[in-house]
Write a structure and sequence with these properties.
Structural class: mainly alpha
Radius of gyration: 18 Å
Number of strands: 0
Number of helices: 9
Oligomer: single chain
Helix content: over 70%
CATH topology: Tetracycline Repressor, domain 2
Largest sheet: none
CATH superfamily: Tetracycline Repressor, domain 2
CATH architecture: Orthogonal Bundle
Shape: elongated
Length: 172
């Protein structure tokens, strides 16, 4: 049911995704869908949470390699299910409730992965002790979104190298 929801979101947006359509595509009854998720927003949230559980590489302790691997995994997963399109339709939802669902189920957990790599780099002394981990996370992750909107292919290694050029400790 979650895969069916993701597919419908990617193809038809939030407005074109309904409990009826999810049930039909998943080959289950509408009652089955409602039994698990009482509202469409709850179903969309579960589908987005399902997406974020994709192939997340284990950290190696090498800040550069870990950031590149996370960006590559994020881009691959987003491309596989048109996640940028899904996010766009969720952000344009009229009642605004989906923005909180998007934040909670995809954006914040994804950011936490990047922040953990950066924080570990600070702790090991690989990165500046005064690093604003939240801002550095936005710098790295935000580039993927900005490049998508600009129609530009993201070279994840270059993004990470440019970011790290301003984040590494002096003399490193």
């Amino acid at each position: 049911m979650l895969d069916a929801t993701v597919r419908l979101l990617a193809e038809h947006g939030v407005a074109g995704t309904s409990m009826d359509r999810v049930a039909a595509l998943a080959g289950v009854s509408k009652v089955t869908v409602y039994t698990r998720w009482p509202t469409k927003n709850a179903l969309v949230g579960a589908a987005l949470a399902h997406l974020r559980l994709g192939d997340v590489p284990e950290p190696t302790g090498d800040v550069r390699a870990d950031l590149v691997a996370l960006l590559d995994a994020m881009r691959a997963q987003y491309d596989a299910v048109d996640a940028m399109g899904i996010l766009g339709t969720c952000l344009t939802d009229a009642d605004g409730g989906l923005l909180d669902i998007v934040r909670e189920n995809t954006l914040l957990p994804r950011r936490a992965l990047f922040a953990a790599v950066l924080a570990a780099g600070v702790e090991r002394g690989d990165l500046r002790a005064d690093l604003d981990v939240g801002a550095a996370t936005s710098l790295v992750v935000g580039t993927l979104y900005a490049d998508h909107l600009a129609g530009r292919a993201t070279d994840t290694a270059t993004v990470v190298d440019l970011a790290l050029g301003g984040l590494v400790r002096a003399g490193r």
